[in-house]
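Section 3.1: Structural characterization of target chains.
Under the original work plan, the team committed to producing a structural model for every single-chain target entering the pipeline before any wet-lab resources were allocated. The record below documents one such target. The sequence was received from the expression subgroup and is listed exactly as submitted; it comprises 128 residues.
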Amino acid sequence: MFRHDHIHHLAADPAGAIEWYKHVFGASEIERHDIRGGEAVRLDIGGVNIIVQEKQPDAEWAPAPPSPAHGADHFCFRVDDIEAAAEHLRERGATIYDGPRSPRPGWGVIHLNGPDEVHIEIIMRPGR
């Protein structure tokens, strides 16, 4: 019944965030449109839609909460090779603050900061 549709990222620097997702994750731009007075850009990363939007003209910003926080805390991409993912991220200048590490046999985890301090997790799961 329910399927993933998108993650919505309100960005302080939308152009910079879009370029970061393209550079680090190889995102492709799907479309640009207006959402309540702010341009929104829909990106695709491995079948995951991320909408990056500038703040609405009359909105005020609140700082991103530190992680962990109540409510939505992060989003995650799955990979087959955690070490290759770490190398790829480092080559593109991503800020990894945890990992790669193996929390249990066959698993791998990386945590990094995206634009606007968005918490992104990369996970490798055995047999999935």
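The first strand starts at residue 7 and ends at 11.
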